[in-house]
Amino acid sequence: MDRKQTRITTKEQSLDARWRSSTLADGNAAYLEDLYEQFLRDPASLPPAWRGYFESLPRVDGVERDVSHSEIREEFRRLAHQSPVAAVSREDSHAAPVESAHKQVKVLQLINAFRYRAHQTARLDPLGLRETPAIPELDLRYYGLTDTDLDAVFETGSLVGPRQATLREILAQLRATYGGSIGAEYMHITDTAEKRWLQSSLESVRGLPAYPPETRRNLLERLTAAEGIEHFLHTKYVGQKRFSLEGGESLIPVLDELIQRAGANGTKEVIVGMAHRGRLNVLVNILGKSPAELFREFEGKAQSNGGTGDVKYHLGYSSDIGSAAGAVHVALAFNPSHLEIVGPVVQGSVRARQERRRDSRGNRVLPVVIHGDAAFAGQGVVMETFNMSQSRGYATKGTVHIVINNQIGFTTSLQQDARSTLYCTDIAKAVGAPIFHVNGDDPEAVLFVTQIALDYRMTFHKDVVIDLYCYRRHGHSEADEPTVTQPLMYQRIRELPTTRALYARRLAQAGLVSDDAAAGMLRDYQQRLESGANVAPHLLAREKSEYAYGADWNPYASSACDPATDTRVSLETVRALTERMLHVPEGLELHPQVVKIYDARRKMAAGALPLDWGFAENLAYASLLQDGFGVRLSGQDSGRGTFFHRHAVVTNQKDGSAYVPLRNLYDGQPNFLVINSLLSEEAVLAFEYGYATADPKTLTIWEAQFGDFANNAQVVIDQFISSGEQKWKRLCGLVLMLPHGYEGQGPEHSSGRLERYLQLCAQQNMFVCVPTSPAQLFHLLRRQMRWLCRKPLVVMTPKSLLRHRASVSSLEDLTQGRFRPVLYETEALEGGNVKEVVLCSGKVYYDLTERRTALQRRDVAILRIEQLYPFPEEELKQAFQRYPAARRFIWCQEEPRNQGVWYQTQHRLWRTMPQGATLVYAGRPTSAAPAVGSYQLHIAQLHALLDEALGPLAKE
């Protein structure tokens, strides 16, 4: 036997003797393994007795590795089957002796069980309809303990408080902490420090601190305001939709506390996203919207400031609120009825504001998102947004989530039909967010979890969830009759006093507020409403506000989209920026293919090679950075580029580290961020929209991996990008890059769904462009920032054209040109001989020119419309004047007839053509799918549409 085996045998014998002298081995191997794992991670977290015991075992986590961890665990299992011998007792001068180590283990298990499971027994439901399950692990008998053990003294382990206590005292503390009006879920968190912090916060006050009288009276005042506005509107505007907060009035104290507590800790901006329920209440009682203005909206007398407007419970608002440490700018985001979509929009807006303030810790700008219970569990964008929360390109250092838990989804029973999880908030566990379920009819418990939630967020910079258990006093809207589908629930609701009434009674019983004083609060509030006076506390006049970090949108208010905006750069600038972009730091080893691309780009800058798309795009970014604009580009695989063309991020082949040349052009340059996004479209695009609405000085781009992947984000396109300016007067310069082009790759990798964007175009709301040369993209991107105009830009970007020999540009195109909405041919076509004009957009232009060359047709001109909206009618008319003899015009597209440009734009084409001209279609036939799956069929269709446009090739 070698020396190592001798050491193991000796230590095993010692271990065996120790086990045989106690009852520790009596069926507790699994628990002991957990304790041992905890000891390895954090020895100080264990009671001294257990720490001393484990310290006597062979070392497996330090320098000595004579015995493996698995060997010790196996010893636990072996000894667990041995019979106990004698009970271990210990006399203590201050407490009764602990009966046995066996029972001590069980008590520690009981403490742990309360932390894991007691939230299921907490008194959360104000209606009292929630069934409280029997949890065996919370019963003494489950551990072999009885009432005779209640006065025995045990080690309390990591339970906050005395190191020793009777079992009766331990149970009382656990039940008060975890079984009252708060159900805390945090044991799923993997970080020990976070769990210890939360345990200390909850257990140190036994689940609820004793608040001073002034705090409690202020809570009643805030509940009075929350109830008062709802009753006023209910009686004055009978039957009108308002999505009242009745039943969830505790939301108002939550928001008030969040703003005040955050402000006291140095927060300067709070950005709030929420759906309909309670929105009007929040606008009036938190943000200080004038009640008189709200009443005018109910009466249909509100003045429009342009655009089409929106219903009152979609509108946003902002104001400046005073706090102990100064002003806090609070903004409520605009949003449509599409549930939960505002969440990632808020995140994007917050990220832009944090970067503007250089708030790397997230202490100065706080995101708060208010959810509905059914939507929180049901909408996939919630999971996408949680998934972004700790990622590099999208983190905002933690969001406070508040779920208004009405315990119903319109008419849908939540537990039976709306989810498959115990709680609507279970999805938050995926990112280790603590969840505080709280009874909305216990305002002090609500206040306490609000304070813990904010403190946790500010300490650990991670998401946290407040699950506000409440109810919906009326139906889904005030015009709905809920008893049709939920008779029992609404019978109980009709019997239940309001949250304000219950709390007023509680304060009266405590001798803090008399019944007359509570009634007087309500009368005073109603009188202020009647007068139209502001009712929000702490509201600051704008001129007194310290808020000075807002983006200046005034230069863009007139939407001066001047097509003559100069986007040229000098040759010297091109070459200087290229040299900086292609600089390779010492120690950076490029991939051989990237080396070739870099060499080619050097030749392009020297004029020795024509410019390709990757070079022109990167140069556009570099020149904008030099002009003082930031650049933010995100999308799946955008760093390298899906089609191996961009290489804005290069990877060191030695160590895998990344280098971003555009971040290293010069000291003090604006920020350049290119990020490979998580595999999401909806949340990421919504994030980028939010970012772009908060920062007009950064070129913000979202790139789809393939154009039709934007289908997954259609709600963002429909409800925000295309209509946000009309509905809410929100300017936004977001760019969508959607790879588009038919190359035989099947229905899901061909079309960027151009027709959908054209269908959304109206009232000069956005730009839709299909550039066909590198220079066109260069000038288009520069135009987006250089002109005094901030509107969304949708770009159908190329795939195969990225390397097409004919799809190139020259240096002169960058230094002398600009973006041209219509491209006509400059070669020597005799205008008088041109009888036909083929109009097109995109890649099909190059197919048409090849066919025309093959046919040797000199009587056909081919024009490219590069900007499809706003439609360039004047430019097109001028182009047609070059061909006075042309009377036959052909629109040619590679998309099916019912897709692409034809149906959306032919009326505009008709307006531009000369009198007596004809317009015909050449393209793929109508189709339910965007493209065919067979490459051979794709080629056959391409030849057929070229035959229609220009005529067939001669048969050999």
Textual characterization of the structure:
GO terms for molecular function: oxoglutarate dehydrogenase (succinyl-transferring) activity; thiamine pyrophosphate binding. It holds the Pfam family OxoGdeHyase_C. It is a single chain. The protein is α/β, with parallel strands linked by helices and 956 residues long. It folds into five domains: 3-80, no CATH class; 90-203, Orthogonal Bundle (Helix Hairpins); 213-544, Rossmann fold (3-Layer(aba) Sandwich); 571-812, Rossmann fold; 825-950, 3-Layer(aba) Sandwich (Rossmann fold). Helices cover 39% and strands 13% of the residues. It has 32 helices and 27 strands. The strands form six sheets. It has a nine-stranded mixed β-sheet. Strand 26 (888-896), helix 31 (902-912) and strand 27 (918-924) form a beta-alpha-beta unit. Helix 5 (101-117) packs parallel to helix 6, helix 8 crosses helix 9 (251-264) and helix 20 (571-581) runs antiparallel to helix 21 (592-606). It is globular and about 105 Å long. 46% of the residues are buried. Mean pLDDT is 88; it is low at 1-27, 59-68 and 78-99.
Sum this structure up briefly.
The chain has 956 residues and is an alpha/beta fold. 39% of the residues lie in helices and 13% in strands.
Main beta sheet: strand number and arrangement? 9 strands, mixed
Number of helices: 32
The percent range for helix content is 25-40%
The top level CATH class name of the largest domain:
Alpha Beta
Describe the global form.
Answer: globular
Strand proportion: 5-15%
> In terms of per-residue confidence, which ranges show pLDDT below 50 for 5 or more consecutive residues?
1-27, 59-68, 78-99
CATH H level of the largest domain: which superfamily? Thiamin diphosphate (ThDP)-binding fold, Pyr/PP domains
Q: Radius of gyration, Cα only, in angstroms?
A: 34 Å
Ends apart, CA distance between termini:
89 Å
Class computed from helices, strands and strand pairing: alpha/beta
Task: Please report the total strand number as a whole number.
Answer: 27
What CATH calls the topology of the largest domain is: Rossmann fold
Strand order of the largest sheet: 5-11-12-10-9-6-8-7-13
The CATH architecture of the largest domain can be given as 3-Layer(aba) Sandwich
Integer tally of domains = 5
Provide mean pLDDT, rounded: 88
Cofactor: thiamine diphosphate
Family: Belongs to the alpha-ketoglutarate dehydrogenase family.
Function: E1 component of the 2-oxoglutarate dehydrogenase (OGDH) complex which catalyzes the decarboxylation of 2-oxoglutarate, the first step in the conversion of 2-oxoglutarate to succinyl-CoA and CO(2).
Pfam families: 2-oxogl_dehyd_N, E1_dh, OxoGdeHyase_C, Transket_pyr
